[in-house]
Amino acid sequence: MTTWLVTGGAGYIGSHVVRELLASGRAVVVLDDLSSGHASRVPAGVAFVQADVADGQAVTQVLQDHAIDGVVHLAAKKAVGESVEQPLRYYRENVDGMLSLLEAMAASNVTRLVYSSSAAVYGSPERNPIPETATLQPESPYGETKVVGEWLAAAQGAASGLSWVALRYFNVAGAGSDDLGDDSVNNLIPMVFAALDKGESPQIFGDDYPTPDGTCIRDYIHVADLASAHAAAAAYCEAHQAADAFNVGRGEGSSVREVMNTISAVIGRDVQAQVAPRRMGDPPASTAATEQILLTLGWKSQLDLEAMVASAWSSWSAHRSR
Questions:
Q1: Do 167 and 256 fall into the same domain?
Q2: Nearest CA to 224 among 266, 166, 180, 258?
Q3: What is the pTM of this model?
Q4: Could you say which of 89, 215, 251, 308 is the most buried, measured as most Cβ atoms within 10 Å of its Cβ?
Q5: How far is CA 310 from CA 7, 140, 215, 226, 317, in A?
Q6: Per-residue pLDDT of the chain (322 residues; tens, 9 = 90+)
Q7: Are residues 237 and 152 in the same domain?
Q8: Which residues are identified as catalytic?
Q9: Number of domains comprising the chain
Q10: Which residues contact 94 (CB under 8 A, 6 or more apart)?
Q11: 16: burial class by Cβ within 10 Å (0-12, 13-18, 19+)?
Q12: Which residues, including other chains, have CB under 8 Å from residue 65's CB and lie 6 or more apart?
């Protein structure tokens, strides 16, 4: 049995990844500074260390004390708008954190890494669906830090034999269970729920894009599917000398208005979304080419947009009732 460290394992995505790795027969250790995660999300029996991934001494101690075989690195700041306002903070936390982790891994002879990247590395794509070979042209400091993280993994792989996979997430949504919902104020579906709770109309930022209904199109991926992609990537790193980046999406887009309509259908009432001005930096459309991850990892998404919204609503409602 291999043992994997999950940085950020008490967060929304991380907590799903932890459970998926456990279900795959691996042992798991969680490291999280709890700046956005919740210790209650760490399963009973899983070792938990509260520490900053940039604390090299603490990370090295964890890697050695628990005889870690591989790392899934999710710990990072991820709000695009905030990164524009606080670029130095994002570079410090995301890039310095990755650098510190790689140094600790090298010192501890840990040679497998699954890195949490993002579709933000592509910026406004030249075409859709976006292949992994597309030019990386991020349009925010957040996206830039994810590109640098991939560069660091590639450079360390070439220098030391690190086996690594970067997973470029598209728009993550849904919940694997009611206790693991997304409470981020930066993601569309929880933003809609939060507005409804306040008696407000959710906003659609722009309806004049060159898309069929005028609203932005995104590739939404269920967090449970995303978690299974991490287990597949971990297995690939164990069996191969990996040096790969893969898109993680469904390979199809849903417009913001389609998401609003799906939410209305799931909750049983019209959300009465209101159109607001465009936000800067929102590309009209962004969908993933998914052939490579299917070909190499044998992974494909299973859950649709309705399943994402329904699970997210169930989790939101359960949390609200407590």
A1: no
A2: 180
A3: 0.97
A4: 308
A5: 28, 31, 22, 17, 10
A6: 999 999 999 999 999 999 999 999 999 999 999 999 999 999 999 999 999 999 999 999 999 999 999 999 999 999 888 999 999 999 999 999 999 999 999 999 999 999 999 999 999 999 999 999 999 999 999 999 999 999 999 999 999 999 999 999 999 999 999 999 998 878 999 999 999 999 999 999 999 999 999 999 999 999 999 999 999 999 999 999 999 999 999 999 999 999 999 999 999 999 999 999 998 778 899 999 999 999 999 999 999 999 999 999 999 999 876 5
A7: yes
A8: 142
A9: 2
A10: 76, 77, 142, 145, 146, 148, 149
A11: buried
A12: none
Distance CA 270, CA 268 (A): 7
CA distances from 89 to 30, 144, 145, 186, 313 (A): 23, 13, 11, 18, 33
* Residue keyed to tokens 């790969």: 244
Statement to judge: residues 155 and 185 lie in one domain = no
Clarify whether residues 136 and 270 are in a common domain.
no
Quote the crossing angle between the two packed helices 96-107 and 141-160, to the nearest 10°.
20
Segments forming the whole domain that contains residue 237? 3-172+220-248
Instruction: Please report the pLDDT score of residue 319 as a whole number.
Output: 85
Identity of the amino acid at 321:
S
On whether both 164 and 180 belong to a single domain, the answer is no
Greatest Cα-to-Cα distance within the chain, rounded to the nearest angstrom = 56
In one letter, which amino acid is 51?
A
Question: 56-65 vs 96-107: helix axis angle to the nearest 10?
Answer: 40
Q: What are phi and psi of 246, to 5 degrees?
A: -130, 140
User: CA torsion angle for 269, 312, 222, 268 (degrees, to 10)?
Assistant: -20
Structure tokens at 25: 């027969």
Let me know: does 10 contact 39? Beta carbons within 8 Å: yes
Q: Which residue has the tokens 């628990």?
A: 66
